[in-house]
Write a structure and sequence with these properties.
The complex is a heterotrimer of chains A (84), B (732) and C (234). Chain A is 33% helix and 31% strand. With 84 residues, chain A is an alpha+beta fold. A 3-stranded antiparallel sheet of chain A has the order 2-1-3, with helices on one face. With 234 residues, chain C is α/β, with parallel strands linked by helices. Chain C has 5 helices and 11 strands, in the order βαββαβαββββαβββα. Chain C is globular and about 45 Å long. The chains are: A alpha+beta (84), B alpha+beta (732), C alpha/beta (234). Chains in contact: A-C, B-C. Chains B and C meet through helix 8 and helix 11 of B and helix 1 and strand 6 of C.
């Protein structure tokens, strides 16, 4: 069994209004040292399987087909093996 | 352990003894839990039922009065309107987004469970001062929650009111109303009829949300309430949209014997209420209830307040047809039991019996209390405050601008622009006028609706204030061209075990009842929310009314803005020297005192009927009632909406602040085409309604001339203050 | 002319679009259920507004995989007329029938208001009864209406005259102040290369009767009718 932890964020070229709003809010709370904030989605998928390579391929496929919109988003995948 | 347990369930010792008497044995934990929620104030109305008996509930056009999931009135052409208002105050104070969202979800279910397609939502909101960060957080969360849920459902949120007052600082009020449309033959009721008929649970799976939410709503808030956060349910409007479509479709098949949504007290309340109404019983196997969490016990399943679930009693033999409709919409529909003839709630888990209680014991046998009532001490002093010695202000224009910029009076566009008020393509009068009007497709008629409450009037004179709540709601409808038909009430008060609070409650209901009688708007359903207090401080007594009326011909639809140059402005009614209980007094002088304005219900009826007559005769260009802020604010609102000024003379000999800002009742400002002046004045004389011709529409400022004083304010300046007030504060 | 209105779980404005065609335009119309694969011989498909699949993951991201969308996509690729409104526009971008994407409004809030649009392109089947650069009023009601696309795509859209509606002011000027949601280049509606698929965020079906506040939206449908009756496209 594999657990995929996927982080989906807007591409750098897309203006992230939520990120900007959160950045402003943090600043108003006194955190002047915050340089930038980007908001994203966190997806956890439990995938049956034995082969890590295969699992990674499948997860990346899921990302490009459904989980992330390639026009505006990019994603990162972290794959760990878990006990059933 | 037993002693702690029944107390923990919110029951009193005498109630516990009564339960033992009814069952002729000790109840087990599960049974005590069921009694705890069903006998809570929220579900049983044990403290309020005897008082609510004062309400008139009948009329030839009432198809269903109080006692069902929603009230239903006939609107002709074989059509009917189902509507109701409900509170979700306690959850919203703890978790504003979900509290408000699930409040909206709950009331929508109450309407479609009757077989009506919800066509509009309304809400009444009250918070503390908008200057406080906490209020801004609650306000923003509640509005987002209402928007998030309602917009996703595709039901337009078309009207509402928002008030800010320190009294609500720790106890915000969120009252949500739903209005639905149906044909007479689609009316479905919450009756578990026909022993042998299968009982389905449909919709979402059951989880641990909101267990004891009903009990939570029946007590005061405290620091401990924060820890009770799990008691706030999380809503899924997408699920509810599917549920609504499926339920409406299934009702049309005719195979539904009875249906009820699961709200407060979940499966327990839906099942026993349906059985109790029908005089039957229900046998249920909890093992069959689809659940979304592991290891749930009987107690949890019975008391769960997971959202978006319905209980449906189906004609035996039609299970497959019903199941397939729910499946089409992607919803689970599981038979969990059947109707029985013995009047018992027989709850099993597999073979084991976990609870066995006569259905009526949970509903009818709940004791009713006639609480002690006593006139509060503050009242005499507050009413007797000497207003005669109040100084007059120097610059009335400035006062007017201040009032227009007060969040309670200011434009609520910041709020309603977050609501989709157009979906459904029926909204003829959107938010911003006196009432919302929806057209009925295929007919040249419409439904007008409004939600209206008041608190300061009731605080300073509950009986009179109660009368005004209903009168004002009806007045707003009339100004929109509608005949008021019926109301739903949401009564928000403090702890009823305190005699002063109970006195306020009783008096307010008495006043409302009288107004309902005179104005012929029976109460067809409603909700009581008590225990709205924190650390011993109660909210202002706040009865809220949701009112529905019929616009017989869409040509009668009237809005409040002035429309064209040279139209003549007429005030119907009489302006008296009454500054008591006014917003002016509160905002400008910091006083919550004086006498609530007088109200003569017969006179009010006269003025309303005259206005409607004139509207029906096509003689009225605009109509607006006088309320918060008095005549000056009413005129300002007419100018701002019409984007045009006015020149008026106010010649009363009472002091200027009363003329401008006093809140004398039964007054309506109309504007008419100048060519119609003779017919209008003739009509008014015939109907014996006192009036004053104030002046005319035109220019770009509101100019008010009095004896030795005047007001000159540019419409653009008023608009800026009015439109930006709330947005400015929310930007922080 | 026969119209089809797609219905997904969570669609809301399907009823409004149906009414619009049936009662206002008085043409044939049928619902197209998401799970079916039958287009019932329609001549124009409307993908309506609402919250298909609750807007979960991203608005329109799940709807695009519905069985009916297979047929809709094939229909569009063959030159069939498709009008995507609001959530419909979002679904069309997700399915690749139109370029770009719709993201959260700059205000981060849902916005229901009337907007002024300038008709940038009146040589499409959807806009032939408007005059070039006419200013019309059509309401919006959305939380994710900000149109975005990469520079290359935007340049192409502009160069090829495929921006059909832009948010403007009363004078017809395109300014940041009159942009309600942060859409790049004030874009409110675009058309595909072939010119048969239009996506727009404002709701024309809400604006087809005087009693509801205006009739500017009606002409999108009457343009379609006129174009169809003119024989073009058959």
């Amino acid at each position: 069994m594999f657990k995929a932890i996927i982080t989906i964020t807007f591409k750098k070229s897309i203006l992230d209004p939520q990120g900007s709003a959160v950045h402003k809010a943090l600043k108003s709370l006194g955190y002047e040292d915050v340089e930038d904030v980007r908001m994203g989605k966190h997806v956890e998928i439990l995938l049956r399987g034995e082969e890590p390579q295969e699992a990674e391929t499948r997860i990346k496929e899921m990302c490009s087909r459904l989980l992330a919109n390639p026009v505006i988003e990019e994603y990162q995948v972290e794959l760990v093996e878990v006990e059933v | 352990m037993k002693e702690d347990f029944w107390r923990e369930m919110g029951l009193s010792e005498s109630e516990y003894e009564l339960i033992k008497e009814i069952l002729q044995r000790e109840p087990n934990e599960v049974e005590l839990g069921m009694f705890g929620v069903m006998w809570s104030e929220h579900c049983s109305y044990k403290n309020s039922r005897n008082v609510l008996k004062q309400f008139p509930t009948e009329a030839p056009w009432v198809l269903q009065g109080p006692g069902e999931n929603a009230g239903v009135i006939d609107i002709g052409d074989g059509q009917a309107v189902a509507f109701k208002i409900e509170s979700h105050n306690h959850p919203s104070a703890i978790e504003p987004y979900q509290g408000a969202a699930t409040g909206v979800g709950g009331i929508i279910r109450d309407v479609f469970t009757m077989g009506a397609r919800p066509i509009a939502s309304l809400n009444s909101l009250r918070f503390g001062s908008l200057k406080s960060k906490k209020t801004q957080y609650l306000f923003s969360g509640v509005v987002s929650g209402i928007a998030g849920y309602g917009n996703c459902m595709g039901i337009p949120t078309v009207a509402g009111e928002v008030y800010f007052h320190p009294s609500y600082e720790d106890n915000c009020l969120v009252n949500a109303m739903s209005v639905g449309l149906m044909n007479h033959e689609d009316l479905a009721k919450g009756f578990a009829n026909g022993p042998g008929n299968p009982v389905f649970i449909v919709g979402a799976r059951t989880g641990r949300d909101g267990i004891h939410g009903a009990t939570f709503a029946s007590e005061e808030l405290s620091e401990a309430s924060e820890e009770r956060r799990p008691a706030v349910q999380v809503g899924d409007p997408f699920m509810e949209k599917l549920l609504m479509e499926a339920c409406l479709e299934v009702i049309k098949t005719g195979y539904v014997v009875g249906m009820q949504d699961m709200g407060a007290a979940g499966i327990t309340s839906s099942a026993c209420e349906m059985a109790s109404r029908a005089g039957t019983g229900i046998e249920m196997d909890l093992a069959k209830v689809p659940r979304r969490e592991e290891g749930m016990n009987a107690y949890e399943i019975l008391l769960s307040e997971s959202q978006e679930r319905m209980l449906v009693v189906v004609q035996k033999g039609k299970e497959k047809e019903v199941h397939s409709i729910f499946a089409k919409w992607g919803l689970e529909a599981i038979v969990v039991g059947q109707v029985t003839a013995d009047g018992m709630m027989m709850i099993k888990e597999g073979e084991e019996i976990v609870a066995q209680i006569p259905a009526e014991a949970l509903t009818e046998s709940c004791p009713r209390y006639d609480r002690e009532s006593k006139e509060p001490e503050y009242l005499a002093q507050a009413q007797g405050y000497d207003l005669a010695s109040l100084p007059e202000m120097e610059d009335y224009g400035k006062v007017l601008l201040t009032l227009l910029g007060t969040p309670t009076i200011a434009s609520k566009e910041w709020v309603y622009s977050q609501y989709d008020y157009m979906v459904g393509t029926n909204t003829v009068v959107p938010p911003g006028s006196d009432a919302a009007v929806l057209r009925i497709k295929g007919h040249n008629k419409g439904i007008a609706m409004k939600v209206d409450g008041n608190s300061r009037y009731v605080y300073l004179d509950p009986y009179r204030g109660g009368k005004i709540v209903v009168a004002e709601a009806a007045r707003n409808l009339v100004c929109s061209g509608a005949k008021p038909l019926a109301i739903t009430d949401c009564l928000n008060f403090g702890n009823p075990e305190k005699p002063e609070i109970f006195w306020q409650f009783k008096q307010a209901v008495a006043g409302m009842s009288e107004a309902c009688r005179v104005l012929e708007t029976p109460v067809v359903g409603g909700n009581v929310s008590l225990y709205n207090e924190t650390k011993g401080e109660a909210i202002y007594p706040t009865p809220v009314v949701g009112i529905v009326g019929l616009v017989e011909d869409l040509a009668h639809v009237t809005t409040l803005g002035f429309k064209q140059e040279e139209d003549i402005i007429i005030l119907l009614g009489i302006t008296k020297d009454e500054l008591g209980a006014s917003t002016y007094l509160s905002v400008i002088h910091g006083l919550e005192a004086g006498k609530t304005p007088e109200i003569d219900l017969e006179f009010e009826k006269q003025v309303q009927q005259a206005t409607l007559e004139l509207i029906k005769k096509g003689l009225v260009v605009s109509a607006h009632d006088c309320s918060e802020g008095g005549l000056a604010v009413a005129l300002a609102e007419c100018c701002m909406q019409g984007k045009i000024g006015a020149d008026v003379a106010l010649t009363e000999s009472i002091r200027p602040s009363s003329i401008l800002f006093g809140e004398s009742q039964s007054r309506i400002v109309i504007s008419i085409n100048k060519s119609k002046i003779d017919s209008v004045l003739q009509q008014l004389k015939k109907l014996q309604v006192p009036y004053k011709v104030l002046g005319s529409v035109g220019g770009d400022s509101l100019n008010i001339a009095g004896s030795g004083w005047k007001v000159n304010v540019e419409v653009a300046e008023m608009e800026e203050k009015y439109r930006e007030a709330i947005a400015c504060l929310m930007k922080g | 002319m026969k119209f089809g209105v797609v219905v997904f779980p969570g669609s809301n404005c399907d009823i409004d679009c149906y009414y619009m065609v049936d009662q206002i335009l008085q043409e044939q119309v049928t619902y197209l259920w998401h799970a079916d694969q039958d287009l019932h011989g329609v001549d124009c498909i409307i993908v309506p507004g609402g919250y298909s699949y609750g807007d979960y993951l991203r608005a329109g991201s799940i709807a695009r995989f519905s069985p009916i969308m297979e047929e809709v996509i094939a229909f569009g690729k063959k030159g069939g007329l498709i009008l995507g409104i609001c959530n419909g526009f979002q679904i069309l971008t997700e399915s690749g029938l139109l370029p770009g994407a719709l993201i959260k409004n700059r205000s981060l809030r849902f916005q229901c208001e009337n907007t002024l649009l300038r008709v940038e392109q009146n040589s499409t089947p959807f806009t032939s009864t408007y005059s070039q650069h006419e200013v019309i009023s059509i309401p919006i009601a959305h939380e994710e209406g900000g149109y975005v696309a990469d520079k290359e795509t935007l340049d192409r859209l502009e160069k090829e005259g495929r921006v059909v509606f832009r948010y403007c002011n009363e004078q017809g000027e395109i300014t940041p102040e009159c942009n309600p949601n942060g859409s790049l280049n004030n874009i409110a509606g675009i058309i595909n290369e072939q010119g048969n698929i239009l996506g727009m965020m404002p709701h024309p079906e809400r604006c087809a009767e005087a009693i509801l506040g205006g009739e500017d939206g009606k002409r999108i449908f009457s343009s379609l009718l006129e174009w169809w009756q003119g024989g073009a496209g058959r």
